[in-house]
C-alpha cells in the first residue's frame, strides 16, 4: 500500500468512526499512560475535535503535558478487531481558541446533537489534536507511518 493510499484510507477511518481511546500522560500516576474513551468530531482541516470536561482526569493530564495519542479502530470489525483497520494518532492536544470556537461547536453538534446540554454546564471545552504522526494498520502486515500533513491533506 502506497503512502497516498494509506493516507486516504486513514482519513476515511477518521471520518467514519466517532469514538476512540485517548491516552494521556498521567499527572496523578507520575507519568504512566492513562487511557479514556472519548467522542470526536472533525474540523474542516481534518483534525479531530474533542469536547472535554475540566473535571476529567484526561483533561487535567493534558493541562500538565499536552502530548497524547488517539486510538481509532474500525467498528465494523467487532468480530475480529485485529483484522480491521486501526489508527494511532500521536500529537498534542490544544484548547480551541475563540477564532475557531464556532466552527468547532457546529462540527461537534452536527455529529453529537445530544451534547448541546454539556455546553451549558460551563466546565466543558473544545480541544483539537495537532497531529504529528500516525501509525495506520490496514490489516495483517499492512502497517505504515503517516505524517500529520498526510492526515489533513
Supply the key terms.
alpha+beta; 153 residues; Pnp Oxidase, Chain A; single chain; six-stranded antiparallel barrel
Task: Break the fold down into its secondary structure elements and pairings.
Elements: H1 3-16, E1 19-25, E2 33-42, E3 48-53, H2 57-64, E4 67-73, E5 86-95, H3 98-111, H4 116-119, E6 124-139, E7 142-147, H5 148-152
Antiparallel strand pairs: 1-2, 1-4, 2-3, 3-6, 4-5, 5-6, 6-7
Tell me what the structure shows.
There is one protein chain. The protein has a 6-stranded antiparallel barrel with strand order 1-2-3-6-5-4. It is built from 5 helices and 7 strands; from the N terminus they run H-E-E-E-H-E-E-H-H-E-E-H. 29% of the residues lie in helices and 41% in strands. It has one domain (3-152): Pnp Oxidase, Chain A, CATH 2.30.110. Strand 2 and strand 3 form a beta hairpin. The two termini are 17 Å apart. The longest helix has 14 residues, at 3-16. The radius of gyration is 15 Å and the shape is globular. The chain is an alpha+beta fold. The model has no long low-confidence stretch (mean pLDDT 92).
